[in-house]
Every structure is written in structure tokens, then in C-alpha cells.
Design a protein that fits this description.
The protein is of the alpha+beta class and about 240 residues long. Helices cover about 50% and strands about 25% of the residues. It is found in: Endoplasmic reticulum membrane.
Length: about 240
């Protein structure tokens, strides 16, 4: 069985327009009018309940009156290339004369008693804000590309070295450190040996000098003795001749 036509008058009838920028809450109003002589229960539903706050989202519209429903779009990152698929539905039914529990009435309502109207959401971004958004998007994209390009050499370098090559490099570093330590120890030993040889040579030089002096003193004494001996012999020979 086909559902009855909507008795409420909606303004706007088909679209809910939200005008940006969308960096803050954007509110649009939906007017529901009841032209009948009976009270009407209504509910406002959406396909994206986390993106919108609706006040009031349900209630009763007295006969011949109207009500304004505030639909508040929560802040989000606007993408002009993304088409909005959000929709709203206004559901209504004639209120029973002796109604005391509205929730109970909704639960017990028959499908043929329910009326609904659907509206789609339209996002309208001003030209200036759209240009600004495009510029910011381009800046973000360029900065992201720069950061990625600067990170590429490091990533490519690390990716070219596998575990085996890294292990070989570490072993080579260790071997070079041990070789440097060995050279330092050999250099220290050579310096110590040179010092010892220098001290020995100094001692030997001093001993040689003292020996030479003693030999010279010995030679001088023998020369004096020989001269005296020759002098005495000469004196004796002279006396014998005379």
C-alpha cells in the first residue's frame, strides 16, 4: 500500500544548503508548517548523524502552526571535488487525539500512517574561500612532496644495505680499531727502546772518556819515568868517561 502524501509543508522543499567556510559550525533552518486541523508528530533523520546536530529533531506541531528546525553542520575539511551524499528525511504522522506517549505512538504506528519527505544536502563554498582553500591545499601538497623527497635518499640508502653488508661494515670497523690500537702500542714500545739505547750510549760514552783519560795519565807517567831514567844513565856515563 502506498504511503500517504506529506501533510507538512517544508521550506525549503528539496535541498538544505550550507554555505562555507566550513571551519566552524554552519547552521541552516528548516521550516515545518502544519496546515491541517490536527496535530502532527514529526521526526527529522539524517544519513550522517555524526556530522549534524538537529534541534529539535522530533516533536508535535499543533494544527495551523509551524516550527523552525535548526540543522547544524559540524566543522570539517571541505573538498570541492567530493560531492555530498548526505540526505535528510522528515517523517510525520497524524497525532491521535488521546496521545500521552509520543514514543509509544511511533512504535505502534503502521506503515500506511507514516508520511515522509526527503531533502539532500548542498555545500556552497564562496569563490574567495575556495581559492584560499585551494592555495592551502597546494601548499600542503608541495610541503609534503618536499618532505618525502628529502626523506628519499635516506630511505634508499638504508634499503640498499642488507643485514649481511651492515655486519661486514661493523666487522671492518672493529678490525681497523684493533689495528690502530696495535700501532699505538708498537709506537710506544719503540719510544721506550729508543730511550733505553740513548741512556746506554751515554753511559758507554762516559766510561770511554774516563778510560781514555786514565790511559793518557798512564802514558804521561811512563814518559816522565823514562826521561828520568835516561837522565840518570847519562849522568853515570858522563862520570865514568871523566
Amino acid at each position: 500500500m502506498a504511503r500517504p502524501e506529506q501533510v507538512l509543508l517544508l521550506e525549503p522543499q528539496h535541498e538544505l544548503k550550507f554555505r562555507g567556510p566550513f571551519s566552524d559550525v554552519v547552521t541552516t533552518n528548516l521550516k515545518l508548517s502544519n496546515p491541517t486541523d490536527r496535530n502532527v508528530c514529526f521526526k527529522v533523520k539524517t544519513t550522517a548523524p555524526r556530522r549534524y546536530c538537529v534541534r529539535p529533531n522530533s516533536g508535535i506541531i499543533d494544527a495551523g502552526t509551524s516550527i523552525n528546525v535548526s540543522v547544524m553542520l559540524q566543522p570539517f575539511e571541505y573538498d570541492p571535488n567530493e560531492k555530498s551524499k548526505h540526505k535528510f528525511m522528515v517523517q510525520s504522522m497524524l497525532a491521535p487525539p488521546d496521545m500521552t506517549d509520543m514514543e509509544g505512538v511511533w512504535k505502534e504506528a503502521k506503515p500506511e500512517e507514516l508520511m515522509d519527505s526527503k531533502l539532500r544536502c548542498v555545500f556552497d563554498m564562496p569563490v574567495e574561500n575556495e581559492k584560499t582553500h585551494d592555495m592551502e591545499s597546494n601548499k600542503m601538497s608541495s610541503s609534503l612532496l618536499k618532505s618525502e623527497s628529502s626523506a628519499l635518499p635516506t630511505k634508499s640508502l638504508s634499503s640498499t644495505l642488507d643485514d649481511g653488508e651492515v655486519k661486514k661494515i661493523m666487522e671492518e670497523c672493529k678490525r681497523l680499531q684493533m689495528e690502530a690500537q696495535r700501532l699505538r702500542e708498537e709506537n710506544k714500545q719503540i719510544r721506550e727502546d729508543d730511550g733505553l739505547r740513548m741512556r746506554k750510549s751515554n753511559v758507554m760514552s762516559s766510561q770511554h772518556a774516563s778510560g781514555s783519560m786514565k790511559r793518557e795519565e798512564g802514558l804521561s807517567a811512563r814518559s816522565v819515568a823514562l826521561i828520568l831514567l835516561f837522565f840518570i844513565i847519562g849522568v853515570i856515563v858522563g862520570k865514568l868517561v871523566l
